Amino acid sequence: MKILSKLNLINLLKVAAFGCLMFAHVQKLATAQTETYPTRPIKMIVSFTAGGTTDILAREVANQLTQRLKVPVIVENRPGAAGNLGTEIVGKSAPDGYTLLVNSSGPISVNPTLFKNLAVNPLTDLDPVALLAEVPNVLIVPASSKINSVKELIDYGRANPNKVNYGSTGIGTASHMTGFMFSQQSGINATHIPYKGAEAVRDLIAGRLDYMFATLPSVAALIKGGQVRPLGISIKKRYVTLPEVPTMLESGINMAAGSWFGVFAPHGTSPENLKMLNQQIVDILMSKKTKDKLINEGAEPIAMNVQEFTKFVRTEYETWAPIVRSSGAKPE
To answer: Where does the UniProt annotation place the signal sequence (predicted)?
Structure first.
């Protein structure tokens, strides 16, 4: 019996020792995976068409992340469904850090209220990574327009009810919501025409739209080139690169709402990977060269850690929810 007990004890000790070794091995592998991320290309999904502000910011960050992380960071444009398509693709992806989303305030802050049955809810199915920039919206008209000020546009709209239209980059986007707020405050009864991203600006240039609110980076070159005329800008003070353009507040419209853009990952992504990506992106945005470049293009980089950005996203949703409900906007 004593021999048997000794044998049992020895076997138990062997099993315990093997278990400890296996646990240590698993822990070592997990640590190694965290330390070596990333080891393969990262896909960065953009919810809008090429040429828009979301795309411009994504490519700036992706190019520099590629150099820093030593793996390709590939931008893929997946526009559609008011920005929901890109959100859905990323929200349903594996939370391994290899599929990221770059999206704007509309799809993230507005769409959870606007759409009742989202396949992916950005507030619960995505993990915020980093805020990229805050961007002013500019009220623009075609260069061929006879309108030269916000007051002239309001006077024209009031004199021609139901004959004025405005475009946006999609239902629920900041472009749409800002346009709605302007119509509400100015008393213009204008028809909203939504587009899938940057196509709206092309139709404005062609004269098929009377006006629209566009993010400054997406139209800065067009303003400089004389293809569109800026009437007002929706921030509290005049923007450094457009000092001659008055704010909407100066023009008698109580509006100072811009847009913001950020990076997100599928919910459940490793906190270590989220933190690493956040630090890399913040370092990129805060470098003098990149910061000066983006400000010159109309985007102001903002540094936030993961926790701060997560709180920011929730606050933005709570701010826009009542505005969306009062707008009466309906998905297409």
So the answer is: 1-30
Question: Which domain covers residue 214, as residue numbers?
Answer: 137-233
Residues 128, 151, single domain; the answer is: no
Let me know: does 136 contact 298? Beta carbons within 8 Å: yes
CATH code of the domain covering residue 117 = 3.40.190.150
Please name the residues in contact with 27: beta carbons below 8 A apart, sequence gap of 6 or more: none
The CA distance from 234 to 237, in Å, is 9
> pTM for this structure?
0.78
Check whether 5 has a pLDDT greater than 90. Answer: no
Q: What 3-state DSSP class applies to 43? A: strand
Do 228 and 294 fall into the same domain?
no
Name the token pair of 311: 């709180």
pLDDT in tens, 113-166: 999 889 999 999 999 999 999 999 999 999 999 999 999 999 999 999 889 999
What pLDDT does 31 receive?
Answer: 45
Residue at 27: amino acid letter: Q
Q: How many domains does the chain have?
A: 2
Is pLDDT of 81 > 80?
yes
Nearest to 52 by CA among 182, 220, 240: 220
The DSSP string of 308-330 is HHHHHHHHHHHHHHHHHHHHT--
3-state helix, strand, coil in the chain (%, to 5): 50, 20, 35
Provide the pLDDT confidence category of residue 263 given band limits of 50, 70 and 90. very high
